[in-house]
Amino acid sequence: MDVFILLLEGIFVSFEPLNLGLLIFGCLIGLFVGAMPGLGSVNGVAILIPITFIIPPTAAIIFLAAVYYGAMYGGAISSVMLGIPGASTAVATVFDGRPLAVKGEAMTALTAAAVGSFVGGTVSVILFTLFAPPLAEVALRFNAPETFALMVMAFATFVGLGGDDVPKTIFSILIGLALSTIGLDLITGKPRLIFFNIPGFLHGINFLVLAIGIYGIGEMLWTLEETKGKVQMSKLSVNMKEVGRAFGALKKTIMAMNIGSFLGFFVGILPAAGATPASLMSYGITKQLSKNSKEFGSGVPAGVVAPECANNSASTGSMLPMLTLGIPGSPTTAILLGGMILWGLTPGPLLFTQEPEFVWGLIGSLYIANFFTLVLNIALIPAFLMVLRIPFAILAPVIFVLCVTGGYAPTQSLHDVWLMLLFGFAGYILRKLDYPVAPAVLSIVLGPLAEKALRQSLILSDGSMGIFFDMAEKPIAAIIMYIAIVLLIMPAFGPLYRKYIKKKQTT
Amino acid sequence: MSIIKKLALVIVSLSLVAVSSVSSAKPFSPKKPIELIIPAGQGGGADEIARLVQGVIEKNDYASKPVIPINKKGGSGGEAMTYVKKKAGDEHTLIITLNNVLTTPVNQPELGIDFFNDFTPLARLITDTFLVWIATEGKNTQGVETFDDFIALAKGNGLVMGGTGSMSEDELLLGMMRGQFGFDAKYVPYDGGGAVAKGLVGGESDFTLNNPSEQMGFYQSGDSKALVMMTPERNPAFPDVPSSYELGYPDLEYYMMRAFMAPAGIDAEVEKYYTGLLHTVYHDNEFQTFNIDDGKLMSWLEGFGLKDFLAIEYAKHGEIIKNFN
């Protein structure tokens, strides 16, 4: 098979001293960038692009891909240890990673995140190696109606996210959707819901501002109240027994790994989606399909594995449309794409044949980068765990500073910092009132994607909803739509069905 | 000998002092990092050029302080323009232009932007143009070989055009063509030029008006073809595509300008410094090669020439918008 020969050559390329050195360096930078709230892979890659003008394109892409990749691993660290999502891609990791850490099982959470990332990354790069050209064709056929159907499916899984209290979950989803409409109308380009004409609202509500506010500030206030500023956990030992236990917990996460890897990759190859929606959808679907879905959110390893697996898988997947079609699959690949053009390459259908060293060097390096980040992560876990030994009275101001920087960094506007603090306070109150906040966070990410796809589809169909159910013309959209409807109905009928079974058994 | 040498040295150095004191009392140089505001999202055409300029400056140490690109994409450039307007007198802020700087002040009067008084134009580096693209295997455009074939087809049938968003350059161009050729199309907006190009090849739209670089990959692989380029002459990057002048449609001429502006109220010295910096970038080998290969037109313009150009373009866009609505 020539694919394997090309791949081997690619792996050799990434073992060249310059490339290997840059790869490891890139992974380390990525870990750091990912772990720092407010600095994500997007910023990391954008900041580092000018440096790459002095090295050959292949070395440059290997370096930046390693940063991208490392950031996917790194995001989990602050999500688990501090409860602040380190990057937008790691928001879903907070849902179960943070409760695990609070329960004293931070070791398990970090191991699950690292191994999940490794599995997701490896599965997706194998898929990439074997099926890149046919998958590019799929991405090309995946247009507005298909995207909207996929979004409906994602929302359908969210209804089950907030536990049994469906009205409160729907309320939370609607809050998120309403916030996501602030800013520019996606179709007409006119500003809408610009409160008091404050220009800061023109760029909309940045999803990270909401996530850092609710999880970072909200969590800080909550923990302060709970711990009264004392050390959260005193007994924390890192020994072989703990390590064994952590790996043992992974046995129950095989399903999450499968869902995360395949779904993540698939969502990743779709233009304009990327790792953030992928990780959120993977969490939602894994929870929905899990036998113990009720325990999700209170700290189960599968809840960490699902999003971590998906974000790595999606980040690899999103390189596929970038290389083969010249369109970005995620915000980070949009910048990488700019970089490729600046290095003198033309992304597009011919890239694989014109620049084999570049393409296969990149693919080969992804295998190696995966391995190195896994090793680095596992090795550094004891260092990360030190964070939990710090009294919360000292940790709280640090978290506060990180949140403020994280809110400021993406848009460099103070407006967003105030918004973040507001959301933090609101999040704390919602939590006291027992409202699920995760669905709001999910909706603000997917809301704009869904709105745009819906309105594009309706323009194409002259306003007819039939475009989503047309088996003959758009079979992919129709099939996804029907699955979505089933998923939507399932949680509503689930309790009824269980009641019915119970009744039958008692009578 | 040595006395003459010394004398010569003194004369030379004296004259140098004299020259430098005549030309400038104290030349400006940046004291902190320079913010380069991009009124569009990451990965688009303006972003690409801004980051290229940043890269060329950093690689060659053309400036004493780093250039930091910041994307402010809200409000079709409204967010970025409001930001720069507020920075009046700031010596460390630049903005790269898309044509949305010409349309947004007209379309969104509530922002209160005065295009001619809120900015200091520095230089235009590049102009980019548009082409009419169809997919080679487009199901609704079969048999279309020339632009005239296309017009004939488009008149009878409601074709779907993919574009980059409401009131963006390509929708205004569609409005212009509607007036000139009497056809209309269903306009579907996408996220950026890359997604527009993909929508065409993926069969969702029937034609697009993309920049050269946005379709380059599909053009080279033969998945898409261009019918006309909206310039007086052919472009060496697309040798087989006729210009609108050749086809007898000189009114179908349109440019996207990549110029740089500073806030209003900066000293002449500062203006001179940044114009000089941009001039150095413009003549950089790498910058030239990259843009020419990408099908862009190198078109330096500064001073009064630039001011006239902007005034003409502003009026032209005002006219297009008026006819559009």
Structural notes for this entry:
The complex is a heterodimer of chains A (507) and B (325). Chain A is mostly helical and 507 residues long. Chain A has one domain. Chain A is built from 21 helices and two strands. Chain A has a two-stranded antiparallel ribbon. In chain A, a hairpin with a 6-residue loop joins strand 1 and strand 2. In chain A, helix 2 packs across helix 17 and helix 5 packs antiparallel against helix 6. The longest helix of chain A has 36 residues. Chain A is globular. About 2% of the residues of chain B have low confidence. The relative contact order of chain B is 0.16. With 325 residues, chain B is of the alpha/beta class. In chain B, 44% of the residues lie in helices and 20% in strands. Chain B folds into two domains: 165 residues, Bordetella uptake gene, domain 1 (D-Maltodextrin-Binding Protein, domain 2, 3-Layer(aba) Sandwich); 99 residues, D-Maltodextrin-Binding Protein, domain 2. In chain B, the strands form two sheets. A six-stranded mixed beta sheet of chain B has the order 2-1-3-10-4-11. In chain B, strands 7-6-8-5-9 form a five-stranded mixed beta sheet, sandwiched between helices. Chain B contains eleven helices and eleven strands. At the A-B interface, strand 1, helix 15 and helix 20 of A face helix 2, helix 3, strand 7, helix 7 and helix 8 of B.
